[in-house]
Design goal:
The complex is a heterodimer. By secondary structure, chain A is α/β, with parallel strands linked by helices. Chain A has 18 helices and 22 strands. In chain A, helix 1 crosses helix 9 and helix 9 crosses helix 10. Chain B is of the alpha/beta class. In chain B, strand 3, helix 7 and strand 4 form a beta-alpha-beta unit. Classes of the chains: A alpha/beta, B alpha/beta.
Chain lengths: ~475, ~210
């Protein structure tokens, strides 16, 4: 896939960006980060950060941050198992995909919300493999039917079997993370082959405000050691775990995700790392978390701008909704935040497909609908191409005053690539729409999801390799 | 029959330069005009229509295929008449008086040509008398009236009344169309057929055969 660059929307001025960056440096060097992972703390200590073991506090200087930024790759290629799915995360290239991890799903057959299982991991992966505008898959659901120790490996294994796009996932245990890496090495052919074409990557997190957890700090340490790509999001929430103001939140987010970036580059310089943001707002009428606010779009577009300032590939969030059903709120929240963040030129926009209800619930039909919204947003990112060919003076000459361009060769040459052609939107005359049974977008999305699950054949793995992985990792479920 | 397949294929590609040449070649080879029409041209347009319904082809591609069909028919039509083969028919079309919109009407005309009809296009702002005159001269199977304005819709009724007065109403079917026109309006003014869009006009016309 040829990358599409955004950046037309600039939510911050250059001066604003510098001010937020400087403030974040102040946060890191003056207040510091509470680091509960022993491995992470010792790493900071070893590299002469100002550390106070009695408070688990690490103060990171501006020069440490600058050193880490200098070492971190400016370009991270997150590969698919097929090259057409490779994601060139650099500059203002835009890619959009799914997010997670959620515990419930709206059942495709019954329309009722229920806990997710390993079958959902598999089916959603297959669905996302087929949806052309979903560029990557962040593993979206948790298999509630498995014991915790088997979750990590099975989530990745099942997704690999059903989706050849890049797979990024949250992880729960260190052992699981290490097993995933070993399994991916086997599939890639060798440890080296996996590092050259990493088709899996990980998400750990920093807790807002300014805190690195023990388990995630340890996991981050080990991922960096293994040289695997990792996104380190923080999720500050306006008025709750960050100041209520967007600029204040961005300063904290910037400090938090950079503390993770610094750790990875101390552990293993050159570790492919994504500056990351899952921040959003709260509705202080109730102090409720919200995911579909317009401020959420501003925050994540702002985060992309902050990462671009440092030339760091970035991971952000958009396309979520607080609506429980497929309704107007669902559509406008997703569309507005998708467009804002995509136009900001963010490299890896996750959560943009499949989630409803505060991004707490997956929904099969929603993947199909969001595939459409992403398609429209990406068309906006592509912008208006101006060349002699697109201005088409020759076509005007052929058609002349009062004619039409319908059957002109220029029309036929350009009509498919110039216009995004939605598959779900209804553009029929009322009489034809009524004849077709007056279908809604929701009904069409359900039918499309069912058809894909019935017909789509993913790349998968050879039978031999599958058997051999099962022998090596007995925890893998059939 | 490789040649017929080639004609069908080039027709589907909208190659309006080569399709008439290939049609001529087929005639020279002694293939019967009726077979060329059914097995090459109509067969090709059927594929185009099917792909259009499946959204694989877009309207502009249907139109250039229709243009290729029309070009082939100028070669083929005289031979069909010579051999007494019945062609799809003739349709007179025009936008009614005081209405200058023609893109919809032109589209309908091209699609009828694509279906093998002989199309006589009277243009825009056509007065009732000219429609009557054209029906008398060309003896079409169908006369198609187009209107895009609610203010010019009454002109359609006028044309039908004029045809009745001239004693020609029984010899021709009248179809109406255009954005403001509805099935009910078509019935009310005594038209024989209505289609909501250009794509379904030909289909409708086929059901009106006397």
């Amino acid at each position: 896939m040829k990358p599409t660059a955004g950046g037309q929307y600039r939510p911050l001025t250059d001066e604003g960006i510098r001010k937020i960056h400087d403030s974040a440096m102040t946060l890191l060097s003056e207040i510091g980060v509470e680091v509960h992972s022993k491995l992470a703390f010792e790493t900071f200590q070893k590299h002469k950060a100002v550390c106070d073991p009695s408070k688990n506090l690490v103060k990171v200087s501006r020069s440490m941050v600058e050193d880490a930024i200098a070492r971190a790759p400016k370009k991270v290629v997150l590969c698919g198992r097929e090259e057409k799915h490779d994601l060139y995360c650099e500059g203002k290239n835009v890619h959009m995909g799914t997010g997670g991890t959620v515990l419930n799903v709206i059942d495709l057959e019954t329309g009722v919300k229920r806990p997710t299982t390993l079958k959902d991991v598999r089916d959603i992966a297959r669905l996302c493999d087929a949806l052309e505008n979903v560029h990557f898959m962040v593993l979206p659901v948790y298999p509630n039917d498995l014991p915790p120790e088997d979750v990590d490996l099975n989530r990745f294994h099942s997704s690999i079997l059903n989706c050849s796009k890049h797979l990024m996932g949250g992880i729960y245990t260190l052992q699981g993370t290490l097993d995933i890496i070993r399994m991916a090495e086997r599939i890639a052919g060798s440890p080296q082959a996996l590092r050259e074409r990493p088709f899996v990557s990980f998400i750990t997190c920093v807790v807002s405000p300014l805190k690195m957890d023990d388990i995630y700090g340890d996991i981050l340490y080990h991922i960096a050691k293994a040289g695997m790509p990792v996104a380190i999001p923080a999720e500050p929430l306006t008025g709750a775990t960050a100041p209520v103001t967007i600029a204040g939140l961005l300063a904290g987010l910037h400090a938090e995700t950079l503390s993770g970036v610094v750790l990875t580059q101390l552990v293993n310089p050159g570790t492919p790392v994504l500056y990351a943001c899952t921040a959003t707002s709260t509705d202080l009428r109730t102090m409720g978390y919200v995911s579909g606010s317009v401020e959420m779009g501003l925050i994540n577009a702002g985060a992309a701008a902050m990462a671009q300032y440092l030339n760091l590939p970035n991971y952000t969030t958009a396309g979520m909704s607080d609506a429980k059903v497929v309704d107007a709120q669902n559509g406008y929240e997703k569309a507005v935040t998708d467009v804002l963040v995509a136009l900001s030129g963010s490299n890896f926009i996750h959560d943009a497909a499949g989630l409803v209800e505060f991004a707490s619930t997956a929904s099969y039909k929603q993947y199909v609908i969001d595939n459409e919204i992403i398609g429209m947003a990406m068309r906006a990112v592509r912008g208006i191409e101006v060349t002699d060919d697109t201005i088409a003076l020759d076509a005007y000459r052929r058609v002349g005053p009062g004619g039409n361009f319908l059957a002109d060769p220029h029309t036929i040459l350009w009509m498919r690539r110039e216009h995004y052609l939605p598959k779900l939107s209804d553009r029929q005359l009322r009489i034809n729409w009524e004849k077709a049974g007056s279908p809604t977008v929701e009904e069409k999305a359900v039918a499309a999801a069912k058809r894909i699950l019935k017909e789509h054949k993913p790349l998968g793995l050879s039978g031999e390799l599958k058997d051999s992985l099962r022998a090596q990792f007995p925890g893998i479920r059939p | 029959m490789e040649l017929l397949e080639k004609i069908s294929e080039e027709l589907q590609n909208g190659n309006f330069i080569d399709v008439p040449k290939l049609t001529q070649e087929a005639l020279v080879q002694g293939i019967s005009p009726a077979v060329i029409l059914s097995d090459a041209l109509v067969a090709g347009m059927d594929v185009v229509g099917e792909k259009f319904r499946r959204d694989e082809l877009f309207m502009p591609e249907v139109l250039i295929a229709a243009k290729a069909m029309q070009a082939a028919m100028t070669v083929l039509r005289p031979k069909l008449i010579e051999t007494g083969v019945e062609t799809a028919g003739t349709i007179v079309i025009g936008t009614v008086q005081e209405d200058l919109h023609d893109i919809g009407k032109n589209l309908v005309g091209m699609l009828f040509e694509g279906a093998g009809y002989q199309v006589i296009d009277l243009g825009v702002g056509v007065a009732s008398g000219r429609f009557v005159e054209a029906v008398r001269t060309h003896k079409p199977d169908i006369v198609g009236l187009s209107s895009l304005l609610t203010t010019t819709m009454p002109r359609m009724r006028e044309v039908i009344e004029s045809l009745v007065e001239a004693g020609l109403r029984g010899s021709v079917k009248v179809m109406v169309g255009g954005a403001p026109v509805t099935e009910k309006f078509a019935r009310d003014i005594g038209a024989d057929g209505y289609s909501p869009d250009a794509a379904s006009a030909v289909e409708k016309a086929r059901t009106l055969k006397p």
